[in-house]
Amino acid sequence: MPKSISLPSYYQATASSSPRHPPLQGDVSADVCIVGAGYTGLSAAIELAEAGYKVVVVEAETVGHGASGRNGGQICTGFSAGQEKIAAQLGKADARRCFALAEEAKLLLKERITRYGIDCSLRWGYLHVLPKPNRFDGLKQWKAEWDDLGYTDTQLLSKAELEEKLGSKAYHGALREGGAGHFHPLNYCFGLARAAISAGAAIHEGSRAVEVDTGERPFVRTAQGRVNAKFVIIACNAYLGRLVPKLYGKVMPVTSYIIATEPLGEDRARAFIRDGEAVADTNFIVDYFRITSDTRMLFGGRASYTTLEPSDLGAYMKPRMTKIFPQLADARIDFAWGGFIAITYNRIPDCGRLSPTAYYAHGYSGQGVALAGLYGKLMAEAIRGTAERFDLLSRVRHLPFPGGPVRVPMLASAMLFYRLRDALS
Ligand SMILES: Cc1cc2nc3c(=O)[nH]c(=O)nc-3n(C[C@H](O)[C@H](O)[C@H](O)COP(=O)(O)OP(=O)(O)OC[C@H]3O[C@@H](n4cnc5c(N)ncnc54)[C@H](O)[C@@H]3O)c2cc1C
Questions:
Q1: Hey, which end of the chain has fewer CB within 10 Å, N or C?
Q2: Protein residue with its CA nearest to atom 18 in ligand 1
Q3: CATH hierarchy code of domain 10-409
Q4: How far apart are the CA of 409 and the centre of ligand 1, in A?
């Protein structure tokens, strides 16, 4: 279990109020026990509870404690791995179906925000910005690929056009999309929890699963209780640790850090990102940023396989931001935090069955804000008896990460390689 980066985040400081959910006490029965109250687990809980299933969610900490309450809030299109890797495994036609599912993921998120009245500062618009001048053809190809997949709400921007929208000279063009965007991730997570409760699900915080049985009569045991269920869903992503030995090594926790400045005021904020889009560069190790609804610059990036936390996260991250926006040198950093992203070897999410009664989905590889909800929904769909869409995604094959003492040094070297590649290409 990786160490938790527990600094108070901007999201915690600005979250809507959320009721606390009592720990599990004693033995209970359920149709489905879900382990983990992030987007994946809560999405499955909503679908199943609305369909009349008795659902119990056990969460080790609090709702949204994991990546779902800490992320950059960027709602992305497609999969982190890109279409080519998926097509190489599943063939072109099924890769197209996967892309359609990823589009459905964004729609699902949008519909839930409307349907459950979730106040989470949703805003559409996304810029993929080029850190190197020689990569514009790559953006053209990307646009052509999306056009071919029927996703056409995109536009190429030259360096000059981009500089009209973005107060930075660091980039050499962009691909703009209208169908991606950003929001307050923790408020969205709290909204999902409220929807799950309204549909009849029970959520227990402070209830770490210490044993999961995936046999014919599965159960989940916590320190003070036990849920006997017909089905179990594992939705712990990078925070899973060694709870389920079969899943250890399938994903690797990678740390990503975020800072938020003091409020900049509407005019200054608009000078940084004129139309308020979410922004991410096209490097392998991505810098991502956006303006929050209260006009702060929220800037994320870096990545570390070692899970060691820098002693002064704000000071560690700020130079990264001022390299892009030197005008922010005098801006106070009000918040700095981090969290664990679960990556898979091929950057395609991993899902499947541990047994006929136990499902899992994880490894969105830094792009799970929309996808996690979809995978949660598809696990629910499969439990309800229609597994075709879940089975499509679970056909992707995954290599495990190495275990033992070479695990972290090997991945740290891999990260160094990608940093060099970003710098030199
Ligand atoms: C810093 C950061 C920035 C990111 N930025 C973006 C972004 O901008 N866009 C994007 O698309 N994606 C982003 N991601 C990824 C995205 O947040 C995740 O893919 C997504 O939230 C995964 O949701 P989840 O429900 O699967 O996992 P999580 O939200 O991590 O939830 C897992 C839950 O399981 C609980 N748990 C673990 N073990 C146990 C146990 N034994 N018993 C009970 N409960 C347990 C944890 O406490 C946790 O609450 C980011 C992630 C991080 C960390």
A1: C
A2: 368
A3: 3.50.50.60
A4: 24
